[in-house]
Amino acid sequence: MSQPPNDAEARRQIKPVICYPTQTLPQPDLGLYTAALSTTHVTQTVLAPPRDACAFHVPRGHFFRITSVDGPQVGDLNLWNANDLSERFYSGKTRALHGTHVTTGDRLWSSFPAMRPMATIVEDTLDWYGIDEFGGSVHDVIGTRCDPYTNHLLSGGQYHNCCHSNLTRALASATDLPLQDAEPHVHDVLNVFMCTGFTRDTGQYFMKASPVRPGDHLTLFAEIDLLGALSACPGGDCSAEHSSDVAACYPLQVDVLAPDPATLANWQEPARNGYNRTHGL
Prior knowledge:
The chain has helices spanning 8-12, 30-37, 91-98, 148-155, 163-175, 179-182, and strands spanning 41-48, 53-58, 63-68, 75-81, 84-88, 107-109, 117-124, 137-140, 190-198, 205-208, 217-222, 226-232, 252-258. By secondary structure, it is α+β, with helices and mostly antiparallel strands. The strands form two sheets. Strands 2, 4, 5, 8, 9, 10 and 12 form a seven-stranded antiparallel β-sheet that branches. Strands 1-13-3-11-7-6 form a six-stranded antiparallel β-sheet.
């Protein structure tokens, strides 16, 4: 380790600056969304089986709700523009704007060049958890998803029920794409119900037992036509292992909910990002 300079402590004590102040972000009308949610009825219900994934479509102006059933379980969520798979959930920019974990009022942003809200969180029954003494919180946008490539790198095994593979199969089935063509569209996730953080001493990504219990749910408003895929992670509640055939795993339920159209009569789909894309030329 290098020797600290004489002003090391002074450098450490410099106050941080928020990279992206969000005061000028377009704010969701949660009152409008909550009122619309109160009028909804379920139009579709799908289950992500344990150690597997499901796909679902949500029309713009509708809601979808992810619910824990049978036992504590975390899920990995991917979202795409249903009409253009190149526009997909951008977890890194969502993290930069809203922080490492998201909850009610936060939005899931799409990739460049569209960069607009894809979905807005309207209900979160785990919002009471906050940030615990270890720095852990729920619904993170920092973990990438468990995958067979890292697993092979670390263990040499061939594991096919990890979230990356689950999401790949679900997307291929939903779009009729060949498996190899579907895989590049799978992207970093929203870790629904997962309790995570960074260790104070080494800065390593950690997980701990999720506080989720059957009946807990996360409800989102679809700002654009969405294709979603949700994997019920092979880690179960992620209290011990990230990918495992022995962890207790449970299904996750996805409900698509249609509101009374009159409640959203004045709502408009977010426009694509207004940057002119000339990049200085």
